[in-house]
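To the wet lab folks,

You asked to see what we're planning to order before we commit. Fair enough. Below is the target structure as tokens, and below that is the sequence we designed to fit it. If anything looks off to you, flag it before the synthesis order goes out.
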């Protein structure tokens, strides 16, 4: 995409949406390069325990003397990248399931609807907890558990878009012209369904981050001493009134990530609406 095309795409955006999209890009860059950005070893004792935030240690130190800023920075990687990966996988799988009636046969439409509705009526968090209880704690199992509860949303959106688009004149004309099911889906239906799916996926990133952080907060994420933001917040809640920076800093990181994700979702919606 050329610079001119990018400027034209960003033209309908307000300041907050632009901040969200730029923030999402920066978060991704920080998460990918976190190991090289941390000023101290996140797992090693580098100073006295319970040092307040200062120029030497921006977020202070924890109960062992580890630099909290380094741990929060690495915690962004433990939260942001899994959330992005999970949303992408659920988006792809849910879209594939939702478009199955178009790819294979229309007889699959009620099956897709009933399967998606079955998963959607189940409380997502309880389903995730049940899966983790079966598989055991850990980041991989947490992602599997959330994925089981998340993909039906995209299947429903894809199916609704399919039902909306298949009666459009250009799709009807392609069908009458003898275009096969696979090409009809990829060439005519999928491009029309992608805007709604991408907007939903972008807005869902913050929800997935909150769910991952919740699982970590409950002790169902990576085992200690992994610097997960939810786990760091949970373990230091008892210190809130004395060593306030221990739970506040990772909690603020979670809030900032979710806030920027929501702004980026609004920006993506504006870009696709103006396209």
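Sequence we intend to order:
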């Amino acid at each position: 995409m050329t610079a001119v095309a990018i400027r034209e795409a960003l033209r309908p955006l307000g300041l907050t949406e632009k901040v969200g999209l730029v923030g999402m890009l920066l978060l991704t860059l920080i998460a990918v390069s976190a190991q090289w950005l941390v000023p101290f070893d996140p797992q090693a004792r580098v100073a006295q325990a319970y040092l307040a935030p200062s120029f030497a240690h921006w977020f202070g130190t924890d109960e062992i003397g580890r630099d909290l800023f380094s741990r929060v920075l690495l915690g962004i990687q433990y939260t942001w990248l899994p959330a992005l990966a999970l949303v992408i996988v659920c988006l792809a799988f849910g879209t594939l399931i939702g478009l199955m009636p178009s790819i294979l046969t229309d007889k699959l439409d009620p099956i897709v609807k009933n399967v998606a509705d079955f998963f959607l009526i189940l409380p997502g968090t309880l389903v995730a907890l049940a899966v983790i209880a079966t598989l055991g704690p850990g980041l991989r199992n947490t992602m599997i558990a959330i994925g089981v509860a998340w993909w039906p949303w995209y299947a429903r959106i894809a199916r609704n878009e399919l039902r909306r688009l298949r009666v459009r004149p250009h799709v009807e004309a392609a069908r009458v012209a003898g275009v096969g099911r696979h090409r009809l889906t990829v060439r005519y239906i999928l491009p029309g369904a992608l805007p709604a799916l991408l907007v939903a996926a972008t807005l869902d990133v913050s929800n997935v981050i909150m769910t991952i952080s919740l699982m970590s907060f409950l002790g169902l994420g990576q085992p200690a001493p992994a610097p997960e933001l939810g786990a760091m917040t949970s373990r230091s809640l008892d210190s809130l009134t004395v060593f306030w920076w221990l739970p506040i800093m990772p909690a603020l990181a979670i809030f900032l990530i979710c806030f920027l994700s929501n702004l980026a979702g609004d920006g993506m919606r504006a870009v696709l609406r103006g396209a």
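Structural context that might help your review: The radius of gyration is 22 Å. The mean pLDDT is 84.

Thanks,
Computational group
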